[in-house]
Amino acid sequence: MLDILLANMSLVWLALMVLLLIVEALTAPLVCIWFALGALAALIAALFGAALWLQAAWFLAVSLLTLWLTRPLALKYLNGRKVATNADRVIGAEAVVTEDIDNIAGTGAVHVDGHEWTARSGSGANIAKGSVVKVDRIEGVKLIVKSAGQ
């Protein structure tokens, strides 16, 4: 059985390549395309009668090389897109505290840009109602604020 499999390694590499391409087509972009290219290299080696160890070496070498060369670019251009929301415009804006901010008690709210937001202190210090603060960042649905003078 093993002899038959080894004699038909080109079919094994072809089947593996097709399977990897199907998985690639059904999943998020660029999940296993590198390994499909490695299977293509191993298929070519098998067609030229290379030994099994050499076919496997070509598979690994081409897969890892293409992964190393292209993955950073793929991540940068395909997955690196950050979608800005309208909420981002409040970062850096001044807000008025409408409920005392106390991180330990889990209370606090601010009014900014016409909207009421749950807020927490970035430094951990309590901030009194009526104080003017500056929005430092957004974490989930809460604004992280600091005193306007900081």
Give a quick rundown of the structure.
With 150 residues, the protein is of the alpha+beta class.
SSE layout and pairings?
Layout lengths: L1 H6 L1 H18 L6 H15 L4 H28 L14 E9 L4 E6 L2 E7 L10 E8 L2 E6 L3
Parallel strand pairs: 3-5
Antiparallel strand pairs: 1-2, 1-4, 2-3, 4-5
Helix pairs in contact: 2-3, 3-4
Order of the strands making up the biggest sheet: 1-2-3-5-4
Please report the total strand number as a whole number. 5
Main beta sheet strand tally, sense and closure: 5 strands, mixed, barrel
Number of separate structural domains: 2
- Please, how many helices? 4
Order of helices and strands: HHHHEEEEE
Percent of residues in β-strands: 15-25%
Give the class from helix and strand content and strand pairing: alpha+beta
- What are the segments in which pLDDT stays under 50 over at least 5 consecutive residues? none
Q: Give the terminus-to-terminus CA distance.
A: 75 Å
Helix percentage? 40-55%
What sort of overall outline do the alpha carbons produce when their principal axes are compared? rod-shaped
The average pLDDT value, as a whole number, equals: 86
Q: What's the Cα radius of gyration?
A: 28 Å
